[in-house]
Design goal:
The chain has about 190 residues and is an alpha+beta fold. Helices cover about 30% and strands about 30% of the residues. The strands form 2 sheets. The protein has a 6-stranded antiparallel sheet with strand order 4-7-3-2-1-8, sandwiched between helices. The chain has a two-stranded antiparallel ribbon with strand order 5-6. β1 and β2 form a beta hairpin. InterPro entries: MMADHC (IPR019362).
């Protein structure tokens, strides 16, 4: 499936846990297209940059980027049961570690970054945000992945993994070079080829 025109770095699998090489995450970097810009403004509001150095925020090369991530689940996540909940917890923990570490690397350079809690849809680091971000909608816009409705839920389908996928997102306000450098600290998985 083709990525959108906003793709700067196409999806690739990255090792995110040196202690467990099966904890890989598919990551890419995108500019924010119009439909997602509205969603971003809705979720983060206008004051998300409070507390970040004005000199960095005013640079011409500083933009908002999305880093959508997807993990291949060991189970089809549409199913139900204790083993499915355990798998969702495992995937959540892998992403939360990745999101925290990735954002710390960007923030250490003086730029804003935040990651979305996949369980609540709320930002983890930006205060006073109470609007929910839709991971499925984000993956549809950024990666052209498909979804379908199952009751009241939208189910994402990955082009290779089907509904055995766990989506989660990071957002960054920084120069592209800072975002790419933070992503390049992770080793590319041979499965990306």
């Amino acid at each position: 499936m083709a990525e959108s025109g906003s793709t700067l770095v196409p999806p690739r699998l990255l090792y995110v846990n040196a202690n467990n090489p099966t904890d890989d995450i598919e990551c890419s970097i995108h500019t924010i297209p119009k439909p997602l810009a509205r969603e971003f403004a809705h979720v983060f509001g206008e004051n998300y940059l409070q507390g970040f150095e004005a000199a960095n925020a005013a640079r011409d090369d500083v933009k908002v980027f999305a880093v959508p991530t997807n993990q291949r689940a060991r189970e089809d996540l549409v199913n139900i049961g204790d083993h499915i909940e355990m798998e969702k917890d495992r995937l959540l923990n892998v992403f939360m570690d990745f999101g925290r570490t990735f954002c710390e690397r960007v923030r250490a350079k003086g730029y804003w970054a935040d990651y979305i809690d996949p369980c609540s849809g709320l930002p983890m680091l930006t205060k006073h945000c109470n609007k929910v971000y839709s991971e499925v909608d984000g993956m549809e816009v950024l990666l052209n992945y498909r979804s379908y409705n199952a009751g009241f839920c939208k189910i994402l389908t990955h082009p290779k993994w089907g509904s055995a996928v766990y989506p989660a997102s990071v957002f960054v306000h920084a120069p592209f070079s800072v975002v790419k450098e933070a992503l390049d600290t992770y080793q590319v998985s041979p499965a990306s080829s």
